[in-house]
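Pasting as-is:
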Amino acid sequence: MKRLAAKQEEITKNTNAVKDKIRKKYEDMKRILDEDLRITLTQLDTEHEAMEKLVEERMEDCYHLTQELNQELDNLDAYVKKDTQDVDIESAETEKRISETLKVTHPDLIQMDEFKNEQLLSLTINLLLLIRSQVPVTKKLFQSYAADVVLDADTAHPKLIISPKGDSATYTGTWQDVPETPSRFDNTLNVVSQQGFTKGRQYWEVEVSGKSYWELGLTYPSIPRKGRKEDCWLGRGKESWCVEYFNGDYTAWHGGVQHELTLLAGKQFTRIGVYCSFPGGLVCFLGADTMTPIHCFCTGTFTDTLHQALCPGHDNEGTNWKPLQIRDASRSAPVL
């Protein structure tokens, strides 16, 4: 007990140390981005100030010319009394001054460096895309644990159609002509994976878009498969863990204990990710689009082989015909 208590203290200490280091790195990233933003905006402000000063100078040139012309108009009588030739000469000189002033003060001659601005914006967009491609960082971590999940058609309820590759399950209102096996669910619309695992860490993702009812989770092989017992449903017995989605509401289940996830009510995800740490006794469900935590079970020690399990649900009054599709969890979903 003393050694276990020391181990517990060591785990807590190491976890806090890692959290502190990661927090500092995020703070460093924020400082770098804030400083880069300050430098970029300062440069743009400097150029803007220079352009404003140039415009003011051009306006002042036009103003002085206007003042001179007004003065010349006031002295028109004196010009008229002069020799016509002199008047023509001075008029030509005035027209020349006006033309030259209009030419050098034309607004089109004053332009921002649009190419530079476009380059700055492009670089900023690229930086944003780079950051988005790297976060959430947990996504990168979980992708390294991606599991190759193949559904076992011999376990599927007869009203489920399992794709030839074993990567999707679709509900059908028709009872399929399939052989009866001890491993087949005969009441609940469940199917489990062909392969199980007894060590390491596993992560898998399922496409759930367009569905109004589904269940996802993990189960021991010992989950009841026959009859109308409540334990046959995912999460209703001690053999399985699941998250259920029905008409906008999320519920987590294990051992028949219901956890209503009210904070997620109405929220929809394209993919759901399921992460399991066998040595850590951890089962986590996440909205894989943004790695939003849905629910985590801290189970302690697993006592048997774990299999991925899912239930695509019934037709739900015509709103739930789409399949549950297992996706390649080693790659991010495309951005639409």
